[in-house]
Amino acid sequence: MTFQVLDKIGGQFCNEEVLVRLLHFWEARNFKKGNVLMGVEVLLDSEGNSVQGFISPNRLFRHENNLHRSSVYKLKKFMVRPAKTLYRVSDHKHTIWFTDLTTMVPVLDGEPNIEAHKFRIRVFSDFAPIADTDFDLFDVVGQHRLISGDNLKSATATDTGTEVAENRSRDRVFLHLLMQDGESIRINLWEDIAAAFRERWNTSTVQPTVLLITTVNPKTIGGAVTLSSTSSTRLYFDANIAETQEFMTKYVSITLHLRL
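The structure corresponding to this sequence follows.
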């Protein structure tokens, strides 16, 4: 059984076993209510068909020690509900909800043919129409053109971007990214994601050139479309994965074309 079968059982309890790879998981918190934990969200993939899932706080103790990115599991006994309308990280029309009966058993033998990565890469013309809607959190890949932030070694410019309230700029890395359509876009990386970028940037003998940033939220800041990292954001650099490798072979020609 694959996730394609879920199209036929929406709103029902699924007692069938699904072979899945756990692509990613992250905490969902309500920052408007004291940063309270609402649950853990997961992104699962079965034969190239990814689905977003949700584990409520009262059920988290059953699974939290068993969650390992890129691991493969046999998933069974879960609810199938309509997909979220906000902060979507999957194109699937359904969402999986873990129940008290849900089992998630690691597959230790063999290597199922399920990809370890799945991205929804978009360009400027895709981000601009959905700015400030909080609907979809797409991915972006490109060549960095400007980077600034506190405690950054060899920042590429002194431009610090739009001011932010409550001195949050110290928790931010601000950059411009040249995308595959030749357009540049502003990006704010916040808190843990900014720290992860800062660590990679400062410890690299040769600073990364190409970045893939997942699940960014487009906002209009200072009149410009700006992408902001979210709690589900991941970072990939240069030759980490096929998508960044592919862009590395193209960005030189993009840069040369823009200079003509």
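The CA atoms of residues 80 and 96 lie 5 Å apart.
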